[in-house]
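Tutorial handout. Part one gives the primary structure; part two gives the three-dimensional structure as tokens.
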Amino acid sequence: MTKPTARRLPPGVTFYLLASIVVSFLAGSSAPTPLYSIYQSQWHFSPITTTAVYGIYALAVLVALLVVGSLSDHVGRRPVLLTAIAVQALTMLVFADAGGVAQLIAARVLQGLSTGAAVGAVGAGMLDLDHARGTIANAVAPVLGTAIGGLLSGLLVQLLPYPTELVYLVLLGVFVLQGVGVALMAESSSRRPGALASMRLRFALPPQIRTPFLLAAPAIVAVWALGGFYGSLGPALTRLVSGSGSYVLGGLSLFTLAASGAGAVLLLRATATRTVLSLGTIALVAGVGTTLLALVAGSTVTFFVGTAIAGVGFGAGLQGAIRSVIPLAAPHERAGVLSLLYLVSYLAMGLPAVIGGFLVVDGGGLLTTAREYGAAVIALALLAMLGLARSSEPKTTAPQAIAVMRPQQELAGERR
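Part two.
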């Protein structure tokens, strides 16, 4: 008599579950953004503390990416995701109960560790199930989550009671449901030896990925440096240009950046990778330039128009970078390569944001810092454009590269 097999989620449902985990984790990371002004008024800290709290989160993500970023390639996706979701749920309770900067920092550290552990595993899991859709989802889900988190938090703070607790309790409920879903999904990656060895700190890329990764790096740094600036100081910039203290308006700046980025990913999903990268760098330069002009002129409308254009650059640059690297990775290399992409992303997001906080307090103030920061992002975008112009024309477009990888994916599926 054979033992009945456990009921598992269908692959299509599993794919959307994994995508929702990326969205909810990144939503959780941006949820505190509209709340910083409340924390600042209650606990009386400076903009340096705000950006330091943001930077500590990015540092924690980096540590997790370095230590366990490739772990799911060896032990499977489910164990890593279940652990990360449990820690993320605990983080929401710490946020909701926070009574000072120390607890806020502790919550951000826990959040960063769980996010860093999850992103490689969940991104690789989507690629295991569907390489073409997984490549697109890995580009659109992070920016979509960032957009949702900032706006949802602003709306809940503005319209409903318990402003510093409710958004975290809502996210807690989401994480509990996702944990149940992960427990029910089938494992998409077979176990491989070397789990402990994969946790040693190292910076290694498969040989075929090194040059594309280096060419994509300036674009990745530019888009995530811009995202970090909006995530830490976006509400303050919005108050400066609009004169309004609305929490919804404060969260709307980050939402506009990320939502237009998500839209760009979807609209350009069938466009050749080189074209996507070119459009992304051009939009970054144009959008950041327009935003800086809006700050000088004090125009709220121009500020949000510039933010939306910059968001197109954010999404297109991120998508182009991912599409130029990920299709070249073998199935057993995916989590590790994705983790290195995220490592560069979070380093670019956290470090400049902390530097920006110091410049706001000890430099020329918010407006001067915004100008200098914007000029640095424009310079990075121009560097990415120069690297793209000097690189050789890719032999395949993104859809063709994905098609080349499909036989490898199917072969791996047959072996499993």
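Part three, for discussion. Confidence is low (pLDDT under 50) at residues 1-5, 393-416. Residues 11-188+207-415 form a domain with the Growth Hormone; Chain: A; fold (CATH 1.20.1250.20).
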